[in-house]
Amino acid sequence: MLFDRLNSEDTALLPITEKVLAGERLTFEDGVALFRSPDLLAVGYLAHHVRQKRHGRRTYFNVNRHINPTNVCVASCRLCAFGRKPDAAGAYTMDLEGAFRTAGQGWTEAITEFHIVGGLHPELPFSYYVDLIRGLKERFPTVHLKAFTAVEVAYYTRIARLSVKEVLERLKEAGLGSLPGGGAEIFAPATRRKICDHKIGAAMWLRVHRTAHQMGLHSNATMLYGHVESDEDRVDHLIRLRELQDETHGFQAFIPLKFHPDHTELGKDTGYRDTTGFTDLKNVAVARLLLDNFPHIKAYWIMMTARVAQVALRFGADDLDGTVVEEKIYHDAGATTPQVMTRPQLVRLIREAGQEPCERDTLYRPVVRPICSQDDSVGDSAPIKTLC
User: Fold this and answer.
1) Domain co-membership, 157 together with 22
2) What is the pLDDT of residues 268-296, one digit of tens each?
3) Between the CA of residue 202 and those of 99, 186, 188, 263, what are the distances in Å?
4) Using only C-alpha atoms, what is the Rg of the chain?
5) CA-to-CA separations, 296 to 55, 286, 301, 386, in angstroms, rounded
């Protein structure tokens, strides 16, 4: 029996193990028990069991580039170190040509995705964002544009006086391919008020993604952990995502995001310290066990470090995200990880974890490139054989 192989002293895991083996859905109470279990290895073993049933040893990554058009933001979220007021030191806003130049810096045909998020600028019109998407699509027609969090989309409805559907329709017509999962943070209202009271609530975040899914747009989902949230808050968040996925089937991946406290008001007020590897791996594993209808769980190396992300591939994660290139949001909050990783580096991390690298595009279709024996090449366009 799987539980016997776990060799766990946490008897609370026994009924959960039986459910996992039977393919039964876990409950809210099961989720809390998983978060409270001191036996990380046992929880990870269960999550890896589910991961292997879904994906075997296959582990996904992509070649992408992040673009943050502006850090000027009307919100003042206590968890954020990225946003600036218009006249603050370090505030910036790219004009359209500047954004196009940034997208083209270091661009090669290997890049399959631009990941685009930014602040809620008080003066930019909605047409700026439509023109940004349209201009990028015209200049880079083969690149998938994953752009704008639900928080940004909701803000555009205010400045343009349009419905969520109308905003998304105009962006989709311009070339929008999918939505990222940012801005979800924690759905629990009391906790959300403490960390990001200037952001939209859970109902609006879910509404934006529901509308996108109904229009045929896929999206991702996130959860920010490691601040003032409780285990119950985390489970509530995951189950709300699971319920929407039951309804729309539009989410592709879930990404647990660790809170970086440096340079944030929340970090200053709470004297918070960085999360431990134990917490990082626990959030990956519990997500894989609770989100039974999500195809993929990401270990976002840019936040949890490449080393922890690599270990997370044995704790339920099946995706390392991508090459990223110039990530600003979490580095402004104190992340010390590199801002870029090459394809060969990602392939090496995956293979050393005993997994099979599978390069994908944003929609998880395999990317096939020529075979090359030089796996230590440093170029993003280097031809490396991956198994999909």
Assistant:
1) no
2) 765 566 789 999 999 999 999 999 999 99
3) 30, 8, 8, 25
4) 20
5) 9, 13, 15, 18
Given a cut of 70, the residues of the chain with pLDDT beneath it are 1-7, 81-83, 263-264, 269-273, 325-339, 370-388
User: What does DSSP assign to residue 63?
Assistant: -
Count Cα neighbours of 315 within 13 Å in the Cβ-side half-sphere: 26
Tens digits of residue pLDDT in 50-83: 999 999 999 999 999 999 999 999 887 777 766 6
- The single-letter code of the amino acid at 14 is L
Structural domain contains residue 115: yes
What b/e string do you get for 35-65 counting C-beta neighbours within 10 Å, with b at 16 or more? bebebeebbbbbbbbbbeeebebbbbbbbbb
User: Scanning the structure block, which residue is given the tokens 């105009």?
Assistant: 170
| DSSP E strands, the chain | 58-62, 64-67, 113-116, 144-147, 178-179, 218-225, 251-258, 296-297, 319-322, 356-359
DSSP letter, residue 25: P
Give the separation between CA 346 and CA 359, rounded to whole angstroms. Answer: 10
Give the range of the structural domain holding residue 34, as residue numbers without chain letter. Answer: 2-52
Residue type present at position 152: E
Cα(188)–Cα(229) distance, integer angstroms: 9
| Residue 102 counted as domain residue | yes
Residues 88 and 153 in one domain: yes
